[in-house]
Amino acid sequence: MEQTKAEAVLDMAACLERVRQRDEEAARLLVRELYPLVMKIVRSHLPRRMPEEDLAQNVFAKVFTHVDQYSGNVPFEHWVSRVAVNTCLNALRAEKCRPELRLADLTEDESEVLEKIGTTDKAPNPAEQLAARDLARKMLETLSPRDRLIITLLDLEERSVEEIKALTGWNASVIKVRAFRARLKLRKQFANAIR
Amino acid sequence: MNPDYWKRLAAMARRAPAVPPAEMPFGFDTRTVAEWRAHAGDAESLPWIPLLRGALVCSILIVALTVAMNYRTLNQREPTSLAVADSAIQLTMLP
Fold it and tell me: Global pTM?
């Protein structure tokens, strides 16, 4: 098992070296290897009107353009994750307007979830869970890109502040303060939507 | 207002069935590599850009320094130029 892991790391290193020498086949291998990781990040932080494939392609373009800057101090996947998060953040920043959450814009399932959250503590069924996920995303769209990123990572993906710090490079206290303020905004959104 | 609404919603959302792992669409790797190659080509075809940028900055600095050093001279009105102009006017006006 350990040998296989070591081989995989060695392959990645060799692949990177070939990519640095502009080997296209190695670049293709790297895309295939990292696609699930990049797509997972892209899907979590996708702007409203941007196809996920386009954003993933932007991430890979940045990875290849800046591959010489990868020093090897952290695993390559961590470095790629950081590039992906920053690319998503830039794409979110490019969105000029952030919609307000209005009850009229919610689907029937989302409205039911909203009502249910306010009234009962019953365990939700899978359909309600999906609606809750969509509703949570809609609520997150009302936040600023940075706040949205932090709350998604903290509350939906259950990442620690340290992990977010490693992914974004932001200070831990900045992350905590932003998370606190963002949650206040979300509570306000809830109050407005339920009213 | 219940302060735990967001917490509850997030907990519900986390329990939602995971999205199936993304399968790479056909040709995605080729498209991505082609784009990389195209942009790399752009960068390689313009090796003079940093050099030109440096030259532009240097020339702006030289112009600014020259203007600063000669500011007094440029700003000073030549005393003799007025006298010459006066005498020229007088000569033309006199019969």
Answer: 0.71
